[in-house]
Fold these 4 entries.
Entry 1:
Amino acid sequence: MAEHHVHTNGVRTWYAERGSGDPVVLLHGALIDSRCFDGNLAALADRFTLYLPERRGHGHTADPGGPITPQLMAQDTAAFLEQVTGRVRLVGHSAGAVVALMTAIARPDLVDRLVLISGAFHRDGWLLPPAAARDIPQVIHDQHAEVSPDGPGHFPAVVDKIAASADTLLLTGADLAAVGCRTLVMVGDDDAVSLEHTVALYRGLPDAQLAVVPGTSHTLLLEQPDLCTRLVADFLTADPAPTFMPVRRRVDRMSPRG
């Protein structure tokens, strides 16, 4: 695994690169870092070149000051794609899915395929309220301290910034309709994003597939790593197969019955 830094949108962004093949970018969730993909989606390196950037205030990437919002992180991600990968398959989990979705909306020229795992498009989709630093498991504090250039004492400030941005997630149906690439929407059947919201996300995207992973929660990548990785790999590598009884995807669904 190679490690690099690149300046993106005023941030000195750390990223790892592994594998070989067409580029795939993996975006981690809030308050964690790219190590969350070890033992699951990192296995995609056997067929792709994986890029694992760590966003502002997360992992090896310092907090440059100011807010940490999904809108800013989407701008950072677009700058990363422009400078490092070009047009790419983009995969995000949790807050990383939010950032991936916003990137695809703002810069459709940079996203070839999109995978949204346990992500929301509106604040009302989250079932859990924003957390304070005291509510975050100690293991997350410890992991941040292991690699953060800001030092362990800065973690509560990052938590507060993320929590403060929660109400800014207000995407609309028109925003979803602007996504021009094929998208896989994946969620656990007992996730922190409601199933109703996930279905609305799936239905709002023009060209989407939906996968509900049984017996899993918001940490479905850890709970069913092989199944989740296989679903993502199949979506990223295969063209859509025709179905025998389509309803939503019927090309003639608006024509009158004969």
Entry 2:
Amino acid sequence: MKEAAQVVASVVDPELPMVTLAELGVVREVREEGATVVVTVTPTYSGCPAMESIRSDIRFSLLRAGYAEVDVRTVIAPAWTTDWISESGRRKLAEAGIAPPGPAPRRAAGPVPLTLTTRPVAVACPRCGHAETSVVTPFGATACRELRRCPACREPFEHMKEI
């Protein structure tokens, strides 16, 4: 039987099927407690609509691999950050035409300040590499992505926002 952590590491994200949940940094821990495999995951944001699919896909993969009991737990603290995306995950996003996020903004501990302006982010085109692209809309297929356009190749593309 394949090790539980290896099984979970191969489960792809339902919204970004070019990367695994492990590469995306959603999988926090895989451990065995007696006969039960306990998997801890953190959603990319608290309202992530894919969480039920993520839990189901992990559970199904482990059951199919021969594990009889699976418990998938969701934790939201500490909050997920795009800094948790692995280098292979970033590479796969770019290869699929999605500009990977840069470093997440740093802030002091405590309440999150409310700002009504956005900070400019330099995002290179994942197709041609042009350094200056523009935002078409701040929301893409999911809330954690935005739609951008490249003035050089004129192609639209998604960018995973820094969180």
Entry 3:
Amino acid sequence: MTAIRDLRQYIDHLTDTLGEDEVRVVDGAHWNLEIGCITELLAEAEGPALLFDNIPGYPAGRRVLTNFMGTAARTAVALGLPPDSAKLDIVRAWQNISKRIEPVPPVEVATGPVLENVLEGDDVDLTVFPTPRWHDEDGGRYIGTACMVLARDPDTGWVNAGTYRCCVQDKDRLSVWMLGNRHAREIATKYWDRGLACPIAVVVGQDPILSTAAAMAAPAGVSEYDLAGGLRGEGVEVLYPPDSDIPVPAHAEIVIEGEMPPLSEESVLEGPFGEWTGYYTHSGQETVVRVKRILHRDDPIILGAPPMIPTVPAGDQAVPLYSASVTWDHLENSGVQNIQGVWAYARQLMIVVSIKQTGAGDAMHALLAAAGRKRTGGMERYFVVVDEDIDITDINHVLWAVFTRVDPANSLHLVRTPTTAIDPMLSPKQRAEGDLSMGIVLIDACKPFAWKDEFPAANRFSDAYRARTRERWATALGL
């Protein structure tokens, strides 16, 4: 894997590997909705990564990067794989890397580009950055959509990194919404129980491996820094700002340092925000970061991953990649045989598994095992198992299997499991009672094993013939 140390090196690597057009510079787009809308339109078209500059009201060089892992090719490059890797090959590669990953601790350095500018005291001002207002109903300007929130456990010294939404509330105030079952919230509670504010650092603009690691939800006690080092093959360079015991990436674009007091001491109305489900859901009094210091590089870049309706084809590939590979591992550990592939749609709302049936119970075994991997508080809603002839990376193939190989009377199974607070289907009554549960669907879309060899043949050309035809007619037909 190529050891990409920062966001700028990743941008250069994209253009070197995929061509100059892979990152499009957009001059003059406004921070208020325009950047968000352009990002959405280009994501829907599976377009290039977007680097916004010359944003009205801000000096040239104060930039915003979006759609940074918006296609399979860019995801492959981010992970150090060939850009033309097939989608399932990316999942297999990630799965193999994850299985043999050896955590590599971060490397402490004395200085780094993030220290090029240090704002303290009266100079602290979050409004110097062109933070977008991403959606028209958002309750504020969210600087943290692909950020890393760093906290250190006061008992063990464990440094946790997670991704949470962060909104600029004032020059020296940032709000952070953390679900109650997340590690950062658990760490903060330890400080609050002792009558202390929780020290915290928010990183805005880091390389894609760090972004991916921060979203992986490592086990308690395991630092995402160590996972990122293992994925890179070398330790992440970190430094300790003066009077801080939280290490921050030396090559980060922006780091916001401060402390988070208990909600009873200070809170702020947070939200609404257009979340990854495609809806505005949670809004309420949430935690505040009292900003004490801002570090940033010259000409800093905000890394943005504004949530969009999750069926957008070019949505962030990192989460489906992670969910698919972890589910694949879980299936193998559960004894499921002859797995051909695992894929995720709408981020991870639908998990699809391809198997080669050898017995009558294989499909149900795979469904139950996949559902058993469902994360506590996750929103995986649909689990589908199909035969090996279905291309699970093509939603049209998956739908074809569901529409033609499912007997609704026998092939559908409903189970109730925990969900998350941003689930739009939670009723007001459930929210008031703290009932965060929702049904999930197990769909057996395989040919009936008892007569699968007699199932009607599909009228589709073979992959080999299609490939030869595409090659022969590539220029004339633009294939």
Entry 4:
Amino acid sequence: MPAFPITDTTCRLEGKSLNVAYSDKLILQNVDFQVEDGKVTILLGPNGSGKSTLLKTLARTIEPGEGQVVLDGHSIHRQSTRSVARRLGMLPQSSAAPEGLTVRELVSLGRFPYQSLWRQWSKRDEVAVTEAMYTADVTEFADRSVDSLSGGQRQRCWIAMVLAQETDLILLDEPTTFLDLKVQVDLLELLVNLAHQKGRTLLIVLHDLNLAATYADTIVMLRAGKIEHVGSPEQVFTAANLKQVFELDSHIISDPHSGRPVCIPKTGRAMHTTEPLSQQAVS
């Protein structure tokens, strides 16, 4: 496994020598990983490579068989759920709201880490929910039921719920799945702005290679439970790496506007040209 390029030992979230297994099958194998603060890091890999497992392990949803996850210098599994939830937000791959739940009620659930028998709903909670809905651009839907909205609108509501936690660390598992391309782009623009304009740290699992190359500050490529490549899109988004990790034959070109790499799959078909009509025989 290549050495991770980050040398800051004070990063807020990292995994050390992680081994994770389902039943007898080893999914993550001795993974060392640091989440770069204030950046957008995107995990890529074929199905079964371990990217969602790594995300869930870092989010404390899965406990590793060996190794540990460290949040703010301490083992995440030795910290209380409420304490972790005040610093780390997680949006899972599939989220379903109870029938009839309004957008405001869903977003308000993001304040659960701050509620207790001794601390009830406060002005701060109300402000956090209002600001989260505004940032995710769902304010106009506040009193509508979540299940009445489109897929993209619902996903924005879930993101607003995570934002209401007021955490600096946000982990998202395939947040653009099943959405139209324009909706995917709008959501990724929102997420990238959270990092670049508001200083949030984002770790995202994506499937779309070109969207990852467009929006990531750092790309992490996993294959068979191991991290194979880590770096900027310009460094690691190469035809050779895509072939190794995804078994994909491709050409990589540079976007003329952004300079970001773009993957063009090889079709495997010979390109044929036809003679112009002027040269074809006329019966």
